[in-house]
Amino acid sequence: MNPSWWDWNHAATVFPLLLQGFKITLLATVLGTLIAVVLGLVVAIIRRIAPTIIRNPVTWVVEFIRMTPLVVQLVFANLVLSPYIESTLAIGIWVLGIHYTTYMAEVYRAGIDSVAKGQWEAATALSLPVARTWRAVVIPQAIRNTLPALGNYAISMFKETPFFVVIYIPEMVRVAQTYGGDTFRYTESITLAGLIFLVASYPTSLLIRRLEKKLA
Amino acid sequence: MDGVIGFFEKLGPNLEILVARMPQILDGIQATVLATALGGLLALVIAIVFGIAQVAKYAAVRIAARIFVEFFRGTSLVVQLFWLAFVLPQLPYPFGWRLAPLVVAVLALGLNYGAYGAEVVRGSIGSVPRGQYEAISALSLSPMRGMFRVIIPQAWALMLPSLSNLWIQLLKGSAIVSTVLLYDLYFRVEQVRDQTGTWFAFLFALLAYYLLAWVIVIIMNALEVRAKHKIGRGPALSKSWGMLFRAPGSVVKGGALV
User: Fold this and answer.
1) CATH class of domain segment(s) B3-245
2) How does pLDDT run across B47-66, given as a tens digit for each residue?
3) Domain extents for chain A?
4) Residues of chain A contacting residue B76, judged by C-beta atoms under 8 Å apart
5) What CATH number is given for A15-215 in this structure?
6) Is A198 close to B74, i.e. CB distance below 8 A?
7) How far, CA to CA in Å, does A26 sit from each of A40, A154, B86?
8) Would you kindly state where each structural domain of chain B is located, as residue ranges?
């Protein structure tokens, strides 16, 4: 049965294409999260220990990136970097990762702040070197507190990968849009893309909610 | 002609081009501000209605609100935007509406960020201390009156920092609306680019968005100071102007994007 507004043939044709695009969506999410998790910690530590002359510019740049649109950053970076970097996807992933670095840095900052003062004092009392204090005492406790927020940001990054349409990376929503443009049938492709997002993100957010309760 | 050096070499002529193109750019800023303000307003209404519905007495209401929130959080903003712009006109009667680009943008932004906001509202109502609820029954206020006179004023002060961050997110998300043919700030700047070069045009765009975000920060800081003052937990706004320019601290507990 094919009602006029929903054509199963189109749905069946576009579904595998969407899954191809979904691979790019996933790749961007995983690599973007990796970048944000590593750089976010670096930024948080710089903002904590670096001298003012370094700390202030870093803080300013981080705030600027956080308060300006990812879309504009994507197009800007793509225009500036495309003569030097061949892969648009690589540019997109780095911009996404760096954008979320600014969020993750805040998460780590809160995590580091939540480590009890006595822990720092204990590290001093045991005369642990600074590097060891961070590595063995502060960061393990700070990271534990940041896990739910990290998960939530990974999910929201996942849902922001469609912003890649502005630099024509063929992730899932771009594929859906292209298919709609080619066939004049948007209904199946866009609806399915939305459902795939929902199916992928909802269970993940339930898992994170459980993690949140467990850690609280 | 491009690059950082080109940016400084051509700064003078570029500024002239910018001034000459100002009417179009102002049109773009107007579209961005309209989408952000109306979208934010719709998001606020949705957040409050569905946030309260999630703690309602009747399970049916709670479940319906939960489904709504999860649906609009779970399907990406861009998908919702494209769905309203491209799919909705193709649906049969009684749908098949061809909405104006601004309406599409406001609806998608409002629904998507409203769903995130509903989580914030729900969380803040939940974190009003238990004793306040007990005080409502002790004073034998009706549940309705207790909600609006005791719980919500306190929850409002708690939720404002998160709502502030969400509204900035909404502003940033609005930069995608030119894909559904709403000619916003980003679109107009993109048009200036071939005359001024990439660096000048995009640094201008980023700066303009940054300033718009600060307008939101200042408005929301003012609301927060006022809300705290009203429940007796802070100085009046007239005594604490400095608070207005406090950078948005990120609230990291609870949902993402908050």
Assistant:
1) mainly alpha
2) 999 999 998 889 999 999 99
3) 15-215
4) 159-162, 173, 194, 197
5) 1.10.3720.10
6) yes
7) 20, 11, 25
8) 3-245
